[in-house]
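We emphasize that the prediction below concerns an isolated chain of 172 residues; any contacts that depend on oligomerization or on bound cofactors are therefore not represented. The input was used exactly as deposited, without trimming of termini.
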Amino acid sequence: MYRRSGAWLRCCLVVFAVASALCVSGPALYWRFKKNMKLGNGSPICSPCTCDCPPPLSLLKLAPGLVNISVTDCGKNDPDLNKEMEKQFVDLLTEELKLQEVVAEEHIRHMNITFGEARRAASQYQREAEKCNAATEICEAARERAEALLAKEMKVTSLWERRARQMGWEGQ
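Result of the prediction step, given as a token string:
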């Protein structure tokens, strides 16, 4: 059952891929084929066409009012545009510098916040590292004490075993 559904999915994907390829490249192939068919069937040299078409209309005949409009009239009635255009070049530069200063201050504020967070995280990691080092030192001291006690216990055990053998005990 599972193998059939996998084969079905694979078949659907192949059909989808072929259909996508035809949709993408089909129109280009169609027009190229159609163009080649015209060249093949038509005569190699065409005679000039004769037609009784009227001359194209000029812009002046279509819309006489458009000819009198000049570029300087563009935006003449827009109050926001007029306000911007009245500003002097120095005012525009001053405004740009103020905007850049605001952006720089925002960047510095963000950087300071990030730096503070990084400093707090580093401090937290430092405290954790100090705790870990202290715990490691305690464990190391306990291990050394345990080794010393084990060595002492081994000596005592060896002493008692030797005494027991001297009294006739036979061990394993």
